């Protein structure tokens, strides 16, 4: 038998105790082209919140939203225990979108590939994972960060942000790189990664602290991972004709609506705002991973403490995922499932 988390009540606000329910189900027999898989590691991604939004319009979503009664899913790494597939054999470690379950029987088409390198993307070497490729896309492709730029990165202690900080400072050598994160401890870590300064957005003096960290200079490039009040505050320090890359808006994912009273700055200072998705970067992905791997070797990208791995039972999976929204992770948040 297996256990699987089901989306019971799609939320429009904060996640509730009855948003998900854990169900037991019989494991089906493995048929031709299928494998029995043990799910070992789950990637925790803020985007999974978007997948379960109540009343989401499928035409406006970049991935089909889940509806009530469907199994909750996400990127995962697992081991093939039994196989009737031509492509995968028992013992293979594979990655794909397996979801919040301990065991599953799936068609081999649901597997992205063997995880020799992919597992290492999520596990042994998170700098080579999806969130790092997102940071790469934002810094190089969208924001085109140059050595003469003053750069601000929010969510700077998270998976995407912590890599973006290192790329901007240690790879590009941008003039000034300022991180934004929740709390002193995280900010100290962001500075240890190379940022010139890091500002705690939870402080009541955030606006003034940001100006101090910028040494009263203006910002050429803002890498936005959080939206909300932080985004609105940044609008007031952007240089004329500068650019904001919108990667994420985590502050709004659980239904919090922030007005942007200073949006007029976009007109006054002729700002460019560009949203982007790593899914549009698949063609460039292998080259990005090769560059990231090179920079890891050269010591420009840190692999130490760049992830938070939580040992958990399947019952704890939704709680661990919600830590993303409470800021209880540093770097990539990974769940290791006990069997
Ligand atoms: P993180 O590792 O950054 O984890 C989320 C972090 O967000 C938390 O640790 C917390 O840090 C911060 N946070 C939570 N709530 C708030 C809030 N209300 N205001 C400000 N910060 C908050 O996650 P990822 O690196 O996986 O993702 C970061 C962002 O990038 C997300 O918005 C995500 O949706 C987006 N993303 C976009 C992709 C794309 O293709 N465009 C791909 C991957 C991710 P703290 O303690 O500092 O508050």
UniProtKB/TrEMBL annotation:
A Pfam family annotated for this UniProt entry: ADH_N_2
List the SUPFAM superfamilies hit by this protein, alphabetically: GroES-like (SSF50129), NAD(P)-binding Rossmann-fold domains (SSF51735)
InterPro entries, alphabetized: ADH-like_C (IPR013149), ADH_N_2 (IPR041694), ER (IPR020843), GroES-like_sf (IPR011032), MDR_fam (IPR045010), NAD(P)-bd_dom_sf (IPR036291)
Q: Which SMART domains match?
A: PKS_ER
The keyword Oxidoreductase appears for this protein: yes
Q: Which residues form the Enoyl reductase (ER) domain?
A: 15-335
Q: Which GO terms describe its molecular function?
A: oxidoreductase activity, acting on the CH-CH group of donors, NAD or NADP as acceptor
Q: Which UniProt keywords apply?
A: Oxidoreductase
Full protein name = Enoyl reductase (ER) domain-containing protein
């Amino acid at each position: 038998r297996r256990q699987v988390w089901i989306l019971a009540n799609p939320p429009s606000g904060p996640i509730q105790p009855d948003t998900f329910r854990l169900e037991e189900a019989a494991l089906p027999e493995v048929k031709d082209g299928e494998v029995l898989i043990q799910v070992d590691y789950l990637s925790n991604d803020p985007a999974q919140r978007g997948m379960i939004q109540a009343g989401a319009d499928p035409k406006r979503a970049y991935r089909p939203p889940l509806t009530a009664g469907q199994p909750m899913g996400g990127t995962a790494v697992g081991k093939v225990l039994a196989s009737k597939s031509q492509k995968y054999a028992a013992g293979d470690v594979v990655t794909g979108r397996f979801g919040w379950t301990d065991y599953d029987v799936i068609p081999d088409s649901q597997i992205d590939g063997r995880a020799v390198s992919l597992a290492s993307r999520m596990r042994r070497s998170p700098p080579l994972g999806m969130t790092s490729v997102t940071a790469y896309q934002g810094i190089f492709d969208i924001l085109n960060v140059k050595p003469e730029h003053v750069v601000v990165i929010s969510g700077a202690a998270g998976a995407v942000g912590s890599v973006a900080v290192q790329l901007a400072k240690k790879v590009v050598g941008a003039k000034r790189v300022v991180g934004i994160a929740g709390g002193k401890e995280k900010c100290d870590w962001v500075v240890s990664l190379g940022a010139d300064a890091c500002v705690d957005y939870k402080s009541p003096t955030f606006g003034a602290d940001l100006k101090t960290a910028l040494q009263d200079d203006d910002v050429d490039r803002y890498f936005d991972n959080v939206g909300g009040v932080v985004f609105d505050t940044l609008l007031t320090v952007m240089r004329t004709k500068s650019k904001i890359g919108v990667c994420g808006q985590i502050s709004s994912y659980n239904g919090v609506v922030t007005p942007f009273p200073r949006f007029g700055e976009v007109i006054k200072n002729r700002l460019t705002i560009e949203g982007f998705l790593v899914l549009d970067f698949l063609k460039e992905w292998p080259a990005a991973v090769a560059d990231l791997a090179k920079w890891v070797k050269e010591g420009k990208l840190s692999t130490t403490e760049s992830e938070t791995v939580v040992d958990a039972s399947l019952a704890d999976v939704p709680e661990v995922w919600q830590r993303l929204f409470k800021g209880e992770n540093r770097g990539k948040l990974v769940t290791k499932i006990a069997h």
